[in-house]
Structure prediction request, 586 residues.
Amino acid sequence: MSQSQDLPAKKPAPTPKLSQVEGVKQASALLRGSIAETLNSDLVKFTEDEYNLLKFHGTYQGYDRDSATELKQQKAEKKWEFMVRARIPAGRLTSRQYLDLDALADRRANHTIRITTRQAIQFHGVVKSDLKGTIADINATMITTLGACGDVVRNVTAMPAPVRSPVTERLAADAKRISDHLLPHTRAYHEIWLDGEQVLGEPEIEPIYGTTYLPRKFKIGLGVPEDNSVDVLTNDLGIVALYEGDTLVGYNFAVGGGLGMTHNKPKTYPRLASFVAFVEPDDLIKAVEAVVIVQRDHGDRTNRRHARLKYTIDERGLPWFKSEMERVLGRTLEDPRPMPPFQVADHLGWHEQGDGLWYLGLAIPSGRIQDTDPVKLRTALREVASRFQPALVLMPTQDLILADIRDEDRAGIEQTLRAHGVQFAEELLPVHRWSLACPALPTCGLALTEAERIRTPMIDRIAEVMARYGLAQERLSIRITGCPNGCARPYAGDIGLVGRMPGHFSLYVGGDFECTRLNWKLLDRVPEDDVPETLAPLFAEFAAQRDQGEGFGDFLNRLGLERATALVKPDGAGAEGKAGDLVEAD
Prediction:
């Protein structure tokens, strides 16, 4: 017997244990599971496994957290309800579609419509008995909820300006083509929600996603250097179109963006996408598919907090990722081409479209379309859509564009809006125009504190502090989220307020308005009421020491963490973190 035969056999490496959700997807028969059975039962809620599948169909199960304390004291059953999200590529809607969705808010939801930071619309307060009807009604408008959530490519965003030019028309069309190409193929959606019949004997496959879809959600945004309204580098795949005049030269692809993280988990972090390759115009769809396939095959399926593309990129490197793209495509790719610096265009107010028509950008605080005292926003938009039939564009800033307006209709539209108390852009301070907030409480199960409901009073108080130092007209972005998952992109602006615990925020500063640099955590657990005055010494220093034309985030980035900390902590206490050291449960 040889020496090698005397040695014990080498044990094979253990197979990594997949996350529970991977097993749920694998066993779901392409997203069916037992959703239909529970939907048609008297059960008040879906199981955890069904909940994970419901996301793919465009809905999240939750409960009204405002009543949670009272219910807990009474030991009563939670009031389960659902958020339903529509998938609207590039945020484009007809007036008829908008009116149908508006009516749905009364018939099925909580009498409000919410514009998301990804140019979609979502409804809150949908009860289980109305869930199927809500999704069916949305589908009847020629809009789907399939793939609006879940481990797939979600709503594809694009530059919102409806200017009639080859640039904007192409980007909107590209967003629609990408969205359609990457829509799940499963027939489960039609069977469950639209009473579609099962097709027996015909093979059903997911040609791109496979039976377990992607390791995590996947976001795609399209922009141009002249208008980065979509914050393109915050996406898993950011696509920047490059033009020479009106001629499309091609696209620079950036990969690995994503903002979700978990407090006190330094292995989770926000990241902006890195440019990896230049893609010819005719190769767009194939190249996008290649990026998705590489992440499908190599993303982490064992740990959902480590499953986004950003972690794949950081662990394997851009050269590896580019070579994998090339392997899938079957051709080499050019390196990213030079391009001008990013800018952010202001689409609020009246603008010419370039075809003799006009568009009007309206600021929608936190994206919430509702009637309140004294602003009857929903009623105003309903009347404008019914009478003047504009096209509508949902903006990634949670705002709304009314487009294709004839010159002779401008006065009537403005009169209608003002009669219902709607404010126009010129009446708002810049800090109000450029602030975002996620829904947070009471509808989001992940929220640690408020965001949407404290946005306006918070920004009002910050504006007062800014005015104290002559900065009332200063353009800067403030993003507020109720938790660290980053839905309002708080790590990619001048100021980020990230929910830390009830009534407290982590304070991030030092990013840039154009969203090309992450900000950094300056303070932790700042009481909500203290935020404006905490910012005061930073505004004072900015007003006194800024360079001409320098933005607030750029100034603080130049100032540095140590000096900024000394301004807000004159007692000499240490900084909460260092620049670039940001500590995804998204």
Q: What stands out?
A: The CA atoms of residues 459 and 499 lie 16 Å apart. The chain is about 30% helix and 15% strand.
